[in-house]
Amino acid sequence: MPRYGFILSGLLLLPLVSGCGTDEPMTSPPPPVSEAENPAAQPAPQVSAENMELFMFDKNPTANQELKPTFMVNAALGTMNEEGDVFHLTQPKSIIFTDDQDELNLTAQSGTFDKKSETALLDGDVTLTSSRIHLGMQSIVWDNQTRTGHSDEAIEFSSDMVKLKAASMTLEPKTGVLVLSNVSEGIITLGAPN
Amino acid sequence: MRITLTILLLTLMSLTVGAQKSDAPSDKVGFSEILLNKVGELNLNYKVNNSLISMRNGVNITIKGETPSENLNILADTILFRYASKEDTQPSVMELSGNIHIKSRIKDKDLIIKANKATINIAKQEAEFVEVTRVEHPTLGSPKKAATVFINLDTGDLLANIVQSLTTEADAHTAPKAP
Questions:
Q1: Which residues are CB-contacts of B152 (< 8 A; sequence separation ≥ 6)?
Q2: Per-residue pLDDT reduced to its tens digit, A104-114
């Protein structure tokens, strides 16, 4: 039985916290596995946990800066693969953190958190909201290395001033730059409140 | 020689259409909304007040007037938005470039302008077109090629620095012949 098999019992009761992008895992190391408990021929059971929380961090924080999360996802149910680096998520709720505390909140029906590639896919009726904008789309991929979100699904964007539909979008939360491609319809309201 | 003189005269001539305000119908073109018909790429920054940055890769928009007949339909390669100050959420100026094609109605008559560059001042409701390859409006007679065309979108006044009179569509793409 692979070593993560042992995490199963603990994860069924406790939320799992994973330190992606760091050398310091935030999970406790699993206890030693005896031969009797680890028959090689037996297929590995999937590791699942309710209320699973996973994090991605800034790999290169500036000097004297404490390690801060850049992305967090909380899922009603999470299932880890055999290698322990990919998590399948049900009803994930995510937060993209930025230095200016203007967080982006995301919800979706399902998702995948890939610890190795530092990416997360949120899928199905995705909403992304901040204090100034709202986006609706079918799916979005968060790349923690480039700190960008990208979607090639039909996008609906709205803010105080702009409402539109686009074919794809790229979002850079750190700067606030949002590129919407192939806008098919929309409206910009002139005279919106300053 | 005669052609040269004609071109020179036309170049110097500034044509003012309807400088005086008529009583009815109203000539005022009030901007309320910009309809996005098709935009290749829209760049925004939601963290700053000057959030609307640019439209690129082919733009087809309609600036809505107070009535549908006052709508200003704009085709261009690129539109950049400028602001009077960093605090403003509303752009004050739109800078258009590349394959500009404008359709509107001025003084209750159809207006068509094709140009390479243009500036639309939303705040002042003025538009200036540069390198105009074709301007069409009944008050100008036949279509014209112009160095610049200025339109007061509030009053409907049009001022054109005409360089050539065009008779056919093909003329719009033909440079004036040397004598």
A1: B125, B126, B158
A2: 999 999 999 99
Per-position DSSP letters for B80-133, written without gaps between them: EEE-SSTT-SS--EEEEEEEEEEEEEETTEEEEEEEEEEEEETTTTEEEEEEEE
Residue with the larger pLDDT of the pair B4 and A46: A46
State whether B32 and A181 contact (CB < 8 Å): no
Among candidates B39, B87, B122 on the partner chain, residue whose Cβ is nearest the Cβ of A183: B39
- Kindly report which listed range (A53-62, B15-24, B67-76, B83-92) carries the lowest average pLDDT score: B15-24
Closest CB to B40 among A181, A193, A194: A181
With H, G, I as helix, E, B as strand and everything else as coil, classify residue A50: strand
CA separation for the pair A137, A159 (Å, rounded): 15
Instruction: Spell out which residues of chain B touch residue A192, defining contact as CB-CB under 8 Å.
Output: 89-90
d(CA A167, CA B36): 14
C-alpha distance from A157 to closest chain B C-alpha (Å): 11
pLDDT at B167: 73
Cα(B63)–Cα(B33) distance, integer angstroms: 6
What φ, ψ does residue B77 adopt, rounded to 5°?
-75, -45
Pairs across A and B, CB distance < 8 A: 88
- How is A159-173 classified by DSSP, letter by letter? ESSEEEEESEEEEET
pTM: 0.79
Give the CA dihedral B157, B144, B136, B34, nearest 10 degrees.
-70
Q: Structure tokens of B123?
A: 């705040």
